[in-house]
Design goal:
There is one protein chain. This protein is an alpha/beta fold and 377 residues long. It has two domains: 234 residues, Type I PLP-dependent aspartate aminotransferase-like (Major domain) (Aspartate Aminotransferase, domain 2, 3-Layer(aba) Sandwich), CATH 3.40.640; 127 residues, Alpha-Beta Complex (Aspartate Aminotransferase, domain 1), CATH 3.90.1150. Helix content is 39%, strand content 13%. It has an eight-stranded mixed β-sheet with strand order 1-9-8-5-4-2-3-12, sandwiched between helices. Strands 7-6-10 form a three-stranded antiparallel β-sheet, with no helix packed on it. A two-stranded antiparallel ribbon has the order 11-13. It starts with 13 loop residues before the first helix and ends with a helix.
Length: 377
């Protein structure tokens, strides 16, 4: 593709950081660069602590263990999300309960959540789609009133905020992604932000294969041993060193992405009165420029547009296939209602290329896309 959906861009210090990590003679996890990343992220998110993981999937799986998901427990979440959100629950024997999304932000519809709660409900897992935070105030109020835990799937939302607070700072736990398609990247990688300090000690144990190794290195015990369930959730120092190079330039990366996002939005709003839906950002939210999408009037027009853009060398992929309609979703989960917004919007959505330093690529996408939309709408 002349204009791919995503393109790797170095921020600057990554290769020097990798060289330093090698010189420090520790490539296994929890070295100097891991500590630097965790400190930076905790400050950015406002979390009690942050633990790097090898993926956001790992962070979500840790979260499910930490909040005590057991066989038969139900967790409310959107169906319009990546499979990792649901898998984290299913792997503990829990049951994802899919609730419809809002038509404006495509986030979990907070007005439908309470009706989906049963005596087996244990938690709510909202995601922050496209870097736009879900409605965390009503969701947290529901959770507190009904005695539920909240785990934010903030995979796309580093640098976003809701009512002046960072995304990821509302739930007891939140999970972030540094996959190469995200704003801040390390190829693969993730983080678990811990907002409830009561969960920190066990989180460290679960992350270290169920051992109290962290307490040993702090001098709190004279040897470490197996004390709980866990797995190897740590990334290596090469991953952490690359990530820290990105974090050192996070502000400029976010500004660049927001600039590209705004350029798309300014150019495409004129098609709204012709049936095109563009992203809506609530006044109390600040997005991070993670994703720009459009929603075509019909699924058929979406297919046609994707084909037209591909013929012009521009990648414009669709996004999630709703989990409630997937083979595993039907086997392991249940839907609360028919989820009409999820079904409808997911069938008509197209994502546009968005990455740092696109230079003239944004203009090329806008010119090509506008030409096609003028013919199709």
């Amino acid at each position: 593709m002349e204009v791919p959906f995503n393109r790797l861009q170095l921020a600057g210090p990554e290769l020097d950081n990798i060289r330093e990590a090698i010189e420090l003679q520790q490539l296994s996890g929890d070295g100097s660069f891991t500590e630097r990343c965790q400190t930076w992220l905790a400050g950015q998110i406002g979390a009690k602590a942050v633990l790097l993981t090898h993926s956001c999937t790992a962070a979500l799986e840790m979260a499910a263990i930490l909040i005590g998901i057991e066989a038969g427990d139900e967790v409310i979440m959107p169906s319009f999300t990546f499979v990792s959100t649901a898998n984290a629950v299913v792997l503990r024997g829990g049951i994802p309960v899919f609730v419809d999304i809002r038509p404006d932000t495509l986030n979990l519809d907070d007005t439908l959540v309470e009706a989906a709660i049963t005596s087996r409900t244990k938690a709510i897992f909202p995601i922050h789609y496209a870097g736009v935070p879900a409605e965390m105030t009503p969701l947290c109020e529901i959770a507190e009133r009904r005695g539920l835990m909240v785990v934010e799937d903030a995979a796309q939302a580093l640098g976003s905020s809701y009512q002046g607070r960072p995304a990821g700072s509302f739930g007891q736990l939140s999970a972030f992604s540094f996959h190469e398609t995200k704003n801040i990247i390390s190829g693969e990688g993730g983080a678990l932000a811990i907002n409830d300090p009561a969960l920190l000690e066990r989180a460290e144990i679960i992350r270290e294969k169920g051992t109290n190794r962290k307490k040993f290195f702090r001098g709190a015990v004279d040897k470490y041993t197996w004390v709980d369930i866990g797995s190897s959730f740590l990334p290596g120092e090469l991953i952490a060193s690359f990530l820290y190079g990105q974090l050192q330039h996070a502000d400029s990366i976010t500004r660049d992405r927001r600039s590209n996002w705004t350029a798309y939005d300014d150019a495409l709003r004129r098609f709204q009165n012709r049936g095109l839906k563009t992203p809506q950002i609530p006044a109390h939210c600040v997005h991070n420029g993670h994703l720009y999408y459009i929603v075509l009037p019909t699924p058929e027009l979406r297919t046609e547009l994707i084909q037209r853009m591909a013929a012009d060398g521009i990648a414009t992929p669709f996004h999630y296939v709703p989990l409630h309609d997937s083979p595993a979703g039907k086997r392991y989960a249940r839907a609360h209602g028919d989820l009409p917004n999820t079904v409808d919007l997911s069938a008509r959505l197209v994502r546009l290329p968005l990455y740092p330093r696109m230079d003239g690529a944004v203009d090329r996408v806008v010119e090509t896309l506008s030409g096609h939309l003028d013919q199709m709408l």
